[in-house]
Amino acid sequence: RLNRLAEFGTTIFAEMSALAARTGAINLGQGFPDTDGPEEVREAAVRALRDGRGNQYPPGPGVPELRTAIADHQRARYGLEYDPDTEVLVTAGATEAIAAALLALVEPGDEVIALEPYYDSYAACVAMAGGTRVPVTLRPHEGPRGGAADRRYVLDLDELRAAVSPRTRLILLNTPHNPTGTVLTPAELTAVAELAVERDLLVVTDEVYEHLVFDGAEHLPIATLPGMRDRTVTIGSAGKTYSFTGWKVGWTTASPELTATVRSAKQFLTYVSSGPFQYAVAEALRLPAAYYDGLRADLQAKRDLLSDGLAEAGFEVYRPQGTYFVTTDIRPLGEGDGFAFCRSLPERAGVVAIPNAVFYDHREAGAPFVRFAFCKRTDVLQEAVDRLKRLA
Ligand code: PMP
Ligand code: GLN
């Protein structure tokens, strides 16, 4: 008999990173930086290890220093007040936060609305919870000015409204959005919030790319909107913001009731994790504004290098407003199947990318789209672009 995860196979990130290792191709597939985060944060981790902080099981909800730093971050950036003792939960990366939130909040038969294309763990976690996923497809949209800068994926609010049923338990949001790079607008978020209030739904919002927004755009947490604070579980992660994806330190902020419920699942998944790294991330959260400005400026330049290069190589480019991914349409290259394209790309061009179709239930809607990561050194991106230009 098939188990409920059989349909998910091996995650595309493992498959594509293995392909990169096997072929020696440049890996613009799995999203991880090729340069580690700040030296002083690494030093903080070493100090914690050496001083014996966190080498034994930390407290279940996370070490108080980190919970306080997370609460301070939400207040300083967004004006959101959370009690570090009852409303903040530290998790093993955002991945565990997603799993714990869905396992805790979704009962068998409940429906979960997710924006498609969606990060691959969402579907697997909804399945593990016994829920049913209901995808609402973000649609590629050509802006009035045309061209890469104006092209984005948009949320069709009528489709979202039509997806809600009496069985809907929650809406799973992700902004800035992986893989499309879309940052949901205040109008889109307000519409989601109004719907959640009207239909009494919970919102779980994955905001791991909150600091990676470009062209002066602002990330707006849906928890700040009227009626949302106490029906929203907000998820963050140190992996993206501080370039330490291997540390696996994430968190949730939510009302005491929701936090206690998510914690009830988390305690049986990992109980706790990452002792010394929790202390280091508490220090990272106190980095000055200049750190975030530097991170954004660096990534924005890399976004432009890769987006312009891909456009010159013949791809139709969705220049992202956030995240470190560029989605492209491969049809101008005479291609239509992103899977086949990505499987042959190492041999044809020495580059690895991710087929967006894996992020869709409606695979045909994602078929001609391919995602490239730009959290890599400039010389690596330049070499990848040079190789891709020889494709045509
Ligand atoms: N959510 C999204 C949208 C992601 O892209 C990722 C990782 N790349 C995660 C969650 C997982 O984050 P973490 O590494 O903190 O588990
Ligand atoms: N989130 C990263 C991405 O989208 C990879 C995460 C993973 O390997 N599971 O590429």
UniProtKB/TrEMBL annotation:
Pfam families: Aminotran_1_2 (PF00155). Its EC number is 2.6.1.-. The keyword Transferase applies. InterPro entries: Aminotransferase_I/II_large, Kynurenine-oxoglutarate_AT, PyrdxlP-dep_Trfase, PyrdxlP-dep_Trfase_major, PyrdxlP-dep_Trfase_small. SUPFAM superfamilies: PLP-dependent transferases. Keywords: Aminotransferase, Pyridoxal phosphate, Transferase. Residues 25-388 form the Aminotransferase class I/classII large domain. GO terms for molecular function: transaminase activity. It is an enzyme of class 2 (transferase). The keyword Membrane does not apply. Its cofactor is pyridoxal 5'-phosphate. This is Pyridoxal phosphate-dependent aminotransferase.
